[in-house]
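task queued by scheduler; priority normal; single chain, no ligands, no partner chains; default sampling; output format set to structure tokens
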Amino acid sequence: MASKITASSVFEETGKMLLANPKPLPIKPNRRVKRPNQKEKYEKEFEFHRTSIRVNIELVESLLTLYNEIAQKQYGKEEVGEVEMSTTLPCTVYYYFCKENGLKVDENFFDDEYFERMYTYQDNGILEAIRELERKIGKPITRTDWENYRKEVGGPSLSTIIRRYGSFSKAKELARQDE
């Protein structure tokens, strides 16, 4: 009698295969929907069914070590944090299971450019939000102005701006250059 195929057995077998024959990450680690008004759209487009799996902890630790090294090489140290067990690692394992077995995957889910374009703040949108808030307020904005009114112009958090541009002042300078 054939053994029963479970999410756990698929993870274990495919995980062992990836340890023996490592492949690139199919998605950028730790990506998050950054635009709050897009979260619902994302969840509708990429419906998730959560399940628990039983896994060999040594296998998981080995895969995390391997894929953290791959992530650093593939995306650069500054671009990504650590590969985590909650999303990136299972998606990688199940992606390669599907590919190895001729099963269809939603290519948009694994397309980092598509994800960035649809679900994160783009530079032109951030800079336009800064310009729009300055027009609305009628003066150069401060960090406090941004925190108080950014949602009115669909802008990201101050920490997102600082992470992207190095400082809020630099982002304002760039926004004013593009006018």
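post-processing summary
- The radius of gyration is 21 Å.
- The chain has two domains: 7-119, 123-177.
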